[in-house]
Amino acid sequence: MNVRDFARRAGIVACLATVLVLAAPYAVVSEQEGLLVAYYASGPVGAAGVGLFALVSAVVFASVERGNVDPGTLAGVVVVLGVATSLLAVVWYLAIDPTVLFSFPQEYRWLEWHAPVVVATSLPIPVCAGLYARDLFA
Known about the structure:
The chain is an all-alpha fold. It has helices at residues 3-28, 33-40, 46-63, 71-95, 98-101, 114-122, 124-137. α4 runs antiparallel to α6.
């Protein structure tokens, strides 16, 4: 099995899964716009920064084998983006105000676990990027 191909595909899936999990409350939570805005705006860059870095990571993962840019350069870029995505997810999770989190109605108590799940789905991104870079430079 080709480790580079597997790591690249798994990295793309991890990036997209992070974005989908991150956006889930927008599709499910209704009539709580003010709380959702405060929830997503927590931290220095908010959840938008996590989503942006995850999407850019997916684009870099997808383009790394195209041959337009040196694969070694893009492997390093995707490692940095993956680590930054996971770190931003952790910072966002730690910055969420508990008052905002516990102000949602009882039917949305699952949001208490939303941010940790976003962090967990972002962790495979730097792992896949590291596997790709390790196999590329080996």
